[in-house]
Amino acid sequence: MNEALATRYRNFLARAAELSDLESAVALVGWDQETMMPEKGILGRAPLAATLAGVLHEKMTAPALADDIEALEREKGELGEQGAAQVRELARLHRRAKNVPGDLVRAVAETTSKATAVWQRARADKDYPTFAPLLEEMIRLKRSVADAIGFKDDPYDPLLDEYEPGAKTKDVARTLEDVREFLVPIVKAIGERPKPKSDFLEKGYDKPLQDQFGRELIKAMGFDMEAGRLDLSAHPFTSGIHRGDTRLTIRYHDDFSTGVWGNLHEAGHGLYEQNLSGELRRTPIGPACSLGVHESQSRLWENLVGRSRNFWKANFPRAQQVFPERLGKVSLEDFYRAMNLVEPSFIRTEADEVTYNLHIILRFEIERDLISGRVTVKDLPELWNSKFKTFFGLVPPDVALGVLQDIHWAAGYVGYFPTYCLGNIYASQFYAAAKRDIPELDAQIGRGDLLTLRDWLVEKVHRWGRTYPSPELIRHATGRDPSTDDFKAYIRTKFGELYSL
Amino acid sequence: MNEALATRYRNFLARAAELSDLESAVALVGWDQETMMPEKGILGRAPLAATLAGVLHEKMTAPALADDIEALEREKGELGEQGAAQVRELARLHRRAKNVPGDLVRAVAETTSKATAVWQRARADKDYPTFAPLLEEMIRLKRSVADAIGFKDDPYDPLLDEYEPGAKTKDVARTLEDVREFLVPIVKAIGERPKPKSDFLEKGYDKPLQDQFGRELIKAMGFDMEAGRLDLSAHPFTSGIHRGDTRLTIRYHDDFSTGVWGNLHEAGHGLYEQNLSGELRRTPIGPACSLGVHESQSRLWENLVGRSRNFWKANFPRAQQVFPERLGKVSLEDFYRAMNLVEPSFIRTEADEVTYNLHIILRFEIERDLISGRVTVKDLPELWNSKFKTFFGLVPPDVALGVLQDIHWAAGYVGYFPTYCLGNIYASQFYAAAKRDIPELDAQIGRGDLLTLRDWLVEKVHRWGRTYPSPELIRHATGRDPSTDDFKAYIRTKFGELYSL
Asked: Over chain B, what is the mean pLDDT?
C-alpha cells in the first residue's frame, strides 16, 4: 500500500470508528428509553434521539468520507481481504444513507411516529380502516426508499438488504417457499394427533424466582455479567451497546415459558454481541453479520438447545427445586413434551417452533407484494385470512388476531420479517455442523456443559463480525452451502418422534 | 427584526438546540457509566465519550455558528432582552471552545486520566511526591487554558467563569475573605463549648429503610418521580439529563446522616433541574444559572430546611417510626443538636455546615495562587497545613487527610471549589427572602408543607435558567444585592443559640 493510500485508509477507519461510537450512543439512548427513562422523559428524549440520528447521518454522508471510499475502491486490490471487506461494508451503508433524501428520511420518521400510535389504538379497537391510510403511506414511502437506493430485480431487495446485507428477494423467496411446502403438511398432520398436557407450565411462577433461575441458565451459557446486564422491559430485546457492554432485557409473566425461553433467546443474542472480535470493534466489519445470523444464535439457544431433552436432563432437577409446587411431580418426559407442544395459533409471538415459520412466511409474501404493488393495503385483511387458512387451516376471528397484530409495518420495518425464518434455518445448519465437529456435544449438554458449544459458536460465527456476508459465513462455519436440509431434518426427526409422524 | 436577522436567529437557535441535545447525550452516557454500566464496559465507553465530546466541540466551534453569533451581536439591540441573553450565553461558550486549541483540550483530558489514577494510589499511600509532577502538569495546562481564553485582571478569572459565568476572582476573593474572617473566631469559640451527643446517628441504619425514608422526604419536597429517578452511585450526584428526566444518585452507609442529608441535598439540585422553564429548554439560557446557584438549592434543602427544628418537628416522628431502635428514645431536641454538631475536622466532605466553608476558602486561596504562580506545587503540603492551622487550629496528621483528599485538582476542576461556598451564601439570601415573602414559612415547614417553599424557588430561581447572570438573578429573586449578610445572620442566630455564643 502506498503512503497516500495508507493515509486514506487510516482516515477512513478513523471516520468509521467515530460512526461506530455514535451508533453506540444511539443504542445506549434507546436501551435507556426502554428500561430506565422516567415516563415524562420522552419530552426531551424524542429531540435527543432525532439529533443523534441527524449527526450520524451527517457523518455517514460526509463528502470527505465519500472521497475516501471512492479512492479506496479504486485500489481495492491493494487493501487485502480484510481491508476490502471494511470498505465494502461502509460503502454499502454510506450509499444507502446518501441516496435516501433527508426529506424522505424525515417523512418515514414522522409516519412511523403517527402510524405506531394509530396502530396501537386500531389494534385495541379491532379497527383496520383507521390504520389503512397510514399503512398505505408507509408502504408508499418504503417503496420510495427502495427506488432511491435502487435495485435490479425486485424493489424489495434494498429493503431486505438493510437487515440481511446482500440477500436477494428471489433467493429468500425460494428458500421460504421450500420451507412452507415442507411445513404445511407437517402442521396439518400434527394437528390430527393428541396434544400433550402442558397446563403445568402456565401460572403460578414467582417472578423473582424466574429471574434467579434465568440468571443461572444465562451464566451456564457463558454470558459474562461483568460485561453485560439483564433488566426488565415491556418488549424483550438485546443491545450490544459497545465492547464490554451487552445488555439483555426480559419480561416475566406468571408462566414458566415467557421468562425461561425468553432468557435463553436473549442470551443467545447476547453471546454473539459479547464475542464479536475485540480487534474489529469500532470498524465497519465489527458488528454482527446480519439479523438472520443474529436470530440464528438466539433460536439455537432457545430451541435447538433449550427445548432439547439433553438440556433439561441437566437442568430440570434444578427447575423442580426452584418451582417445587408447579414442577415437583412432573416427569422430565412430560416436561419435554409440554415445551414442544405444536399447535396452530393466531399470534406469531406466541407460536411454537414449527408453526412460527409459517407466520413469518405469510408476512414475507404479503409485504413483498405490497412493495411491488401486486397487492394493495385495502386487500390486506382478506388476503391475510385466506393465506392463514391455507397455512394453518384456521381463519383469525378478528384483525387484532390477524393483520393488525404486529408493530413492524407501522414502525417501518419492511424487509425485517424474513430474517426470523432465516434465523431458524441457519440455526439448524450451525447446530448440525457443531454436532459433526463435537461428537460428544449431546452428552456434554446433558451434563450441563454448554461452554464447548459456546466456544464453537465464538470461533465459527461470533468473532468474524461482518467479515463475510451471511452465505459465506455459513460456508466457512459449516463447510456447506446454505440450505434448508438441516432445518428439515431437525424438524422431521424431533417432531416425528414427538408426534409419531 | 428584519427577515435576514430573523433567519439568522432561527438558525442560531436550531444549532443551539442541537448542542443542547448533544449535551444531554453526554449527560446520559455519564450517568449510565456511574450507575448502570457493567465493569468491562469501560473498554468501549472511553472512546464513545471522547467521540461525543469531539462532536460537541466541532458543533460548538462551527464557522457557520460563529457567523451567526457575530451577525446577531452586531444587531443585539434588535433581539430583545431574552434574545440578547441567548446570544450572550452561547457566544460565551462558543468563544471558550474556539479559543482553546484542540491539542490543549486533549492534553488536559490525558493528564486528567493519568492524574486521577495516580492521585488515587498516592492518597492511599500518603505519598505526595508521586502525585506532585502530575499536579504541576495540570496547573501548567490550566494556566494555558486561561491564557488561551484570555483575561483582564486575573488568570483565575476564565477558569472560574466555567463554573460561575461572569464571576470575577477579585469579587469572589473579597466575599470569601469576609466569610473567613467571620467564621474563624466562631469555629474557635464553638470548639471551647461542650459537644452535643451524636452517637445515635452513627451505625445500625438499615439501607433499604434509609432508601424508603429518603424517598418519602424527596416526595414531600415535590420532586417528581415520573420525571426522575433515584439510583445508587459511589459518589452522589444529580444529572438533569433533559426535560422530563432528572436523575439523583445517592449512597447509603450504615449511619443516618449520609443517606438522609444526601437525599435532601441531591433532591435540592433535582428540583432546580426539574423546574427549569420548559419553554427555554434546548436554548442557551435553558440550563441552570451557575454552579453556585445550583449549590444554593442543594444546601438550602440540606441545611437551611433539612437541619432546622421546624423540618424535624414534622418529620422526626416518622424517622422514629422507621428507625425505632436507634431513634425511638431520642428527643427531638437531642436529635436537632446532634445533627448540628460543629467540630473542626480534616475531611471536607464530612464537615459540618459551619466549618465546611473554611475548607472551601482554603482551597480557593491555594488554587488561585497556583494559577497565578504565587505558590508552587512543591510548597503545597506545607502551605496547606499552615493555612489549616490558622483556620481550624489543627494540623492534618498526613497528606491523605490534608492536601491529597480531593479529586478536583487531579480531575482538572480548577475554579470549581469557590462555588460550594457561594452556594451556601446564596442559599441564606434566598431563604431569608422566602421568609420575607412567606411570613408563615416556618410554621408551614413545621407542619410538613414544603411545597410553598418549593413553589417560591421555582418562581424566583428555577424557571429563569440562565436568563440572568447569578448576581442579577439574586437581585431579582431577593430584591437585594448579593451579600454575605443573610449568611452571617443565619450562622450567628442558629449556632449562637445552639452553642450559647
From this structure: 97
- Residues 311-330 in A contacting B (C-alpha not used; CB under 8 Å): none
* The 3-state secondary structure of B44-94, one letter per residue: HHHHHHHHHHHHHHHHHCCHHHHHHHHHHHHCHHHCHHHHHHHHHHHHHHH
DSSP calls for B186-246: HHHHHHTSPPPP-GGGSS---HHHHHHHHHHHHHHTT--GGGEEEEE-SS--EEEEETTEE
Interface of B with A in 19-48 (CB under 8 A): 21-22, 24-25, 28-29, 32, 36-45, 47-48
In this predicted structure, the answer to whether residue B308 has a pLDDT above a threshold of 90 is yes
* Domain membership of residue B4 as a residue range: 1-99
Does residue B88 fall inside a structural domain? yes
A32 interaction partners in chain B (CB closer than 8 Å): 28, 32
For the question of whether the overall pTM of this predicted structure is more than 0.90, the answer is: yes
Is A91 inside any structural domain?
A: yes
A-B CB pairs within 8 A amount to 133
> What is the pLDDT of chain A when averaged over all its residues?
97
Q: Which of the residues of A are catalytic?
A: 266
What is the tally of structural domains in chain B? 1
Whether ipTM exceeds 0.90: yes
State which H helix or E strand residue B250 sits in.
Answer: strand B245-250
User: Within a domain: residue A69?
Assistant: yes
pLDDT for A422-479, tens place per residue? 999 999 999 999 999 999 999 999 999 999 999 999 999 999 999 999 999 999 999 9
B266 labelled catalytic: yes
Query: How many angstroms separate the CA of residue A373 from the nearest CA in chain B?
Result: 39
Average pLDDT for B214-225: 98
Residue A161 predicted with pLDDT over 90: yes
Q: What is the pLDDT of residue A194?
A: 95
- Residue A10 amino acid letter: R
Interchain pair A226, B44: CB under 8 A: no
Residue B118 lies in a domain: no
Alpha carbon distance B292, B471 (integer Å): 11
As a residue count, chain A comes to 501
How would residue B1 be classed by pLDDT, with cut points 50, 70 and 90? confident
A102 has a pLDDT exceeding 90: no
- How far B270 CA sits from the closest chain A CA (Å)? 14
Q: Is A244 within 8 Å of B28 when comparing Cβ atoms? A: no
Q: Is residue A142 over pLDDT 90?
A: yes
